[in-house]
What we know:
- The chain has 139 residues and is α/β, with parallel strands linked by helices.
- The chain has helices at 31-48, 65-80, 95-107, 122-130, and strands at residues 2-6, 10-15, 20-25, 52-56, 86-90, 115-119.
- The chain contains 4 helices and 6 strands; from the N terminus they run E-E-E-H-E-H-E-H-E-H.
Amino acid sequence: MSIVYHTSFVQLHHDPAGATLETEWLGFVNSEQLRSSLTEALRLARQYRVKGWVANNTLLRTIRPADQDWINQEWFPEFAKLGVRRLAIVESQDALNRMGITNIIQRATEHIPFDTQYFADATAARRWAASAPASVTAR
Length: 139
């Protein structure tokens, strides 16, 4: 796995063998940082044609309601077009972040044509995301 994008608040990792991209948040992010990082992640996911995605939220703090809305209304529809088959969510240590992520996923149900699972550790999440099936099955 290699780092393909790095700032003081996020690292994006690409695993070519598992065709995955991981967003590893390194702490609190403001709206501009969150949105620009997620937009860059979409660009890289298209470039690498990823099939698995790991949202490593371990250190991510609360996501503002306006940013949750942006993720659901703007980002998730684009994410759904990527062909990702598995979304692995590594849960945050921050309780408010966990509630926010749950809210985002529940609201994005119409845009989720793939399997989603929650994990306590990144290693298990990476392994699961990298084992995405060859095709998506009806849910």
